Amino acid sequence: AVVSTQSTGTEEEVATLQQLDGQITSSDRKYAEIGKKLGRSAGSVRDRLTKVGKGLTKKGKLAWTDDELKRFHDARAKLGNDFKKISESVGTRTPRQCVQRAAAEKKQEAAELTRSEKATLVELLYNEPVNYVDEIDWKGV
Q: 53: which DSSP letter?
């Protein structure tokens, strides 16, 4: 697929960039290697990724789309931790990207308080018993 630097391009071009972006891990050579595979210059690829960039993460990776996340979660529910098959189901992400996504989500879940933990926290902070989280006046907290 040839990538145009004039627009964000087709979904197919974006998918190709996402796949190549996930396969090449050395940031120093990333644009050159992707460019070589697409028949474009490193600068052209960098510009292209920047234009798609509204979907770039802080690390310069292409962010997951809502559609990709839906396919990922559906595949995880059916396939567990078989990331090669999950990657095939998602269609636009490598197995490595799927593993990284699962790890990031697990880390995020571990950092979030449960409803019960939130109620306990409020009790400790305000010395008032709370039976249900729904009783908490969050605007007043």
A: G
- E strands, the chain, are none
Instruction: Encode 117-136: b = buried (16+ Cβ within 10 Å), e = exposed.
Output: ebbeebeeeeeeebeebeeb
Residue 84: count of CB within 10 angstroms of its CB: 12
> What pTM, to 2 d.p., does this model score?
0.46
DSSP codes joined into one string, 68-83? HHHHHHHHHHHHTT-H
Residues 6+ apart with CB under 8 A from 131: 119
Task: Check if the beta carbon of residue 17 is closer than 8 Å to that of residue 48.
Answer: yes
pLDDT tens per residue across span 54-84? 455 656 567 888 899 999 999 999 999 999 9
